Amino acid sequence: MTVLSVSRRTASRRTVARTVRALGVVSASAALTVGLAGSAAACNINEFSAEAKCVGDKGVITVTDVDPAGVPATVTVFLENNGADEKKVGEQVVKGSREGVTITFEEDWQPNAEYRIHVKAKPYVDEDIKPNLTTPATACKGEKEPPAPSEPAPTPSDSASTPSEDEEEPGTPTPSESEPETTAPADTSDNAPSPAVGESNLAETGADSNTGLIAGIAATLVAVGGGAIFFGMRRRGANSDS
Fold this sequence. Notes:
Layout: H1 2-42, E1 48-55, E2 58-65, E3 72-81, E4 84-95, E5 101-106, E6 114-121, E7 125-128, E8 133-134, H2 156-160, H3 175-178, H4 188-191, H5 197-204, H6 211-241
Antiparallel strand pairs: 1-2, 2-5, 3-4, 3-6, 6-7, 6-8
């Protein structure tokens, strides 16, 4: 009986030891998994986003951090030119949240410009937001178009010049309107209508005909003839008395 008790106790101890070892391995694995998950959830480049937009009439670049752990991250913005940094726009520190925290960089960006945004949050992130930020094709309203070149002022010689025939002022009468063209009188000798029959008879008896002259000559002849008869009769009487 004593031997059997000892054997059972030894088996129980071995079982307990194995169980403890198994629990230790499981706990370590769980702790490692939780640690890795916590590190992954602490900060990730995918939690950062950038955007170019307009505030009023000014251009800005915004970066939003949605890291729920709120790990401080340094955000730096660079203007790119042919794949190289042309200038550093600015640098700010952001602590994200589950709802998101946004920081703003004032930048009067040009249409279709390219910007590189670098994020550094030790020991989790030290890289750029991919892809690079490209601004919209339309500029903000504050970007006014250059004024069109003004036309040169007319010189006094140009302003005092008389208008050409094609540029006469309205209301100015043309020669055809103010002075009608004179035409030569038509030859009435050939084209005058012949008088009617009645009109010719009236003209012959009117004051313009020779009727008065003929009547006067006839009266003169009558008077001369009467005088000749009178003198002839007196002469005959004188001869008969003698």
